[in-house]
Design goal:
- By secondary structure, the protein is α+β, with helices and mostly antiparallel strands.
- The chain contains 7 helices and 14 strands.
- The protein has a 7-stranded antiparallel β-sheet. Strands 10-9-8-11-12 form a 5-stranded mixed β-sheet.
- Helix 1 crosses helix 3, helix 4 packs antiparallel against helix 5 and helix 5 crosses helix 6.
- Bound molecules: zinc ion (ZN).
Length: 394
């Protein structure tokens, strides 16, 4: 199994400055490589490839020994590969008949990760067996940086990345051959409905919040909007919003891990709605509150920007859940989300009017009344078990 471990870095102020410079130079390299590709195409109709750009690195480094020449060759190759990947993804989407945005230049603060593709090449991890939490990572031209390793790393470290989040630095170790830890069978199966406000509901009626409340973030964003451009107060407000963003993201990840763990501990088979990138069923039209926001009717969250944030969180949760399920030897089944929330789990009658409010389901055919999310979770479970039967019969 492949799995990644993220730890807080504790660089000295000098090391933090070097890390910031490292990111900045990699960003410059990325932008220059993008410019090169664009110009070659515009002027000569030539498509530049990764191999050619990688071959030029030697000269770029030789011409700028105190700048680009300082950093690891392999990490620079990784940055060029990242651009190549962005290009490929762009052309794949064009081929699929969509109209994607062209790969963009990365502005300051829009390039926050550098990868070293191999432990021992421009970076090296040190751990002290007698003090498992006292570890360091040595990065070329940055130095030996302390790692706050709050848990054991399993498997073999393949790639090492450093990423910046606000004022903090993290190291991400991507490991291969991480051993699985199968859990004993429980004999239980569950469907999971993830509704508005990050609330996951199982077919047994268990509910769990996938995210902490983001209201402080919203308040900070409103404050920021009122500050004058270029002012000192605005700069302060920007920093505050960035810090809260990072905090909300960490809390979300933490709750997602806990919810996923509870699911794999409790059930042998877990059925969930497949994530549809374009157009999940909208449950209700949002009601504007007259101040640029939406009324808390509990239904607006599946539309517009909120919906895309919800989808992003849902996809992050599914990634965590699938890793844990694989490790624990559990089966995860994705089903088509269409109609799961408007179908009666008792008689199968499907109608929009079955959903009385966000929380209440009442079947217009048989009168069955239930918590709307539990009703949906039961439908999801049933659809998943039917898929499983069909797969067995085939
Ligand atoms: Zn019914």
């Amino acid at each position: 199994m492949r799995r990644s471990f993220t730890f807080l870095l504790r660089p000295t102020s000098k090391q933090a400055a070097a890390l910031a410079q490292c990111l900045e130079d990699h960003r410059e390299l990325y932008n220059a490589a993008l410019e090169h590709r664009r110009t070659a195409y515009r002027k000569a109709g030539v498509a530049v490839r990764y191999g050619e750009q990688s071959a030029e690195l030697k000269h770029i480094r030789a011409d700028d020994p105190g700048g680009q020449g300082r950093w690891s060759f392999s990490s620079q190759q990784a940055t060029l590969r990242r651009l190549d990947k962005a290009y490929r993804a762009f052309f794949d989407r064009v081929k699929a008949g969509r109209t994607p945005g062209f790969p963009r230049f990365k502005g300051r603060g829009r390039f926050d990760t550098v990868e070293w593709p191999k432990d021992g090449d421009g970076c090296r991890r040190h751990s002290q067996p007698e003090h498992p939490t006292a570890t360091y990572v040595r990065l070329q031209s940055v130095g030996q940086v302390r790692v706050h390793q709050h848990r054991r790393v399993l498997g073999i470290v393949k790639t090492i990345s450093v990423k910046r989040e606000g004022a903090r630095w993290f190291v991400v170790l991507s490991c291969d051959e991480v051993p699985a830890h199968p859990l004993p069978a429980t004999g239980a199966v569950a469907g999971v409905d993830v509704g508005v406000a990050w609330l996951a509901t199982t077919s047994d009626g268990d509910q769990r919040h996938l995210a902490a409340c983001a209201s402080r973030l919203a308040a900070a964003q409103r404050k920021l909007a009122g500050k004058k451009r270029g002012s000192k107060r605005r700069r302060k407000a920007v920093a505050r919003v960035a810090a809260l963003h990072a905090k909300v993201r960490r809390q979300r990840l933490d709750s997602a891990h806990k919810a996923a763990l509870a699911l794999v501990r409790g059930y042998d088979v877990i059925v969930h709605e497949a994530l549809k990138v374009a157009g999940m069923t909208r449950r209700a039209a949002p009601k504007p509150d007259g101040e640029g926001g939406y009324l808390a009717n509990g239904q607006s969250a599946k539309s517009g920007l909120n919906k895309s944030i919800l989808d992003a969180g849902w996809s992050a949760f599914l990634t965590i859940l699938s890793h844990k399920a694989e490790s624990a030897g559990r089966q995860l089944i994705a089903v088509n989300p269409a109609n799961t929330s408007r179908t009666c789990s008792r008689c199968g009658h499907c109608a929009k009017d079955n959903r009385v409010t966000q929380a209440v389901f009442r079947c217009t055919a048989c009168g069955h009344e239930a918590h709307a999310d539990v009703n949906a979770a039961i439908n999801i479970l049933r659809a998943g078990l039917a898929l499983r039967e069909a797969a067995r019969a085939a």
